[in-house]
Amino acid sequence: MRSNQGATPLAVAIQHEQLEAVRFLLKKENDQNFDILSYLFPALPPIIESIESLFPHNAGKEEKLHDGYTLLHCAARTGNKEIVEELLKSSKRARQLINQQTNEGITPLMLACQAGCVPLVQYLIDQGAKATLEMKNGTTALDIAVKSDNLALCEILFPLSNLSVKTVQTALKNASFEINKLFAARSSYAMVKSPNGDNPFMMALQEANIPVAAFLLKRLNEVFLYRKNDLGVCPVLFSAECGFYTILEELVKRRPDAVPKMELFKRLLKAGFSGNNAFFEKMIREAQLSQKELQELLGVAASAGNCLGIEKILLPKGVDLASFKDAKGWKIEQYLAKFNDRLQLEQYGRKNPVSILDGEGKTLAYIAAENGSWDVLG
Fold it and tell me: Could you give the 3-state DSSP secondary structure of residue 299?
């Protein structure tokens, strides 16, 4: 007997977590009902929706994720340990399917992790469930636990799992400090690399996970802290560009020669630095810079719209605003008009706002208007 959707009474009892009904029906039904049950799909849409929402796969392409589900998958998905126990105790066939993967590679253990049931996950592992199995997109049971930020599950699964770059990236993006600390304790952690050659420290910076980055700064060998990725990006300059001053300060203090000072100053000014870190403010102030170097820094700050950096950092260093002219012929007044710095424009810029200034014939008023610099226009 089956429902209009093709589900057997046992399947319906499992779906609705009716333990006594499951026990009764297990005595009546034979083991063949545990095999792949694609007919269960209409009765179990939450399985499909929840897995897709956790780990989208080939977005925009139609997938038949339901193919390959068994009754054990359905039971694990409920998170009901008693029902899973009943299935495994009562059916030899169910025990044989403990590591059965759907067409997408989903295992009962993965569904138990998705349900967040720690006792069930531990029970399945004790019964032989493998934590190393992967979905077609590379997702493991540990990845699901990490995505859910479930420390208890991670503590169970991590010793039994491989540490992949996907797991590390998922943890840095979604998981707590404690989970990331757990992973960092493994000796191979520092050797994990992204396709672009990023190590975990660089990945932490890319995810703006400063607590973990600060922890790794104290833990990892220096060779990993200053290493460029395959694209030539190094943690020092990346931290400067992102304004991660606490991380950057520690990196520069440890190795003052890690990057050329001019390159560091350029990245800081490009990121909007205007003296809001005492260490780097002092570093720039005490640096011996020629007028040519100051003009280079002025060009970077002007292009980035860092008018405050010009005022607070470069003017006290003696930069000559009047002689500045960039590759496209713009002088400082064009940038001040573009980025709405009325005070500096009045003090250092041209007084006549309708004078033609650039090669395209644009006046200061035109530049201010096209960039919404209303204070300058006023």
Answer: helix
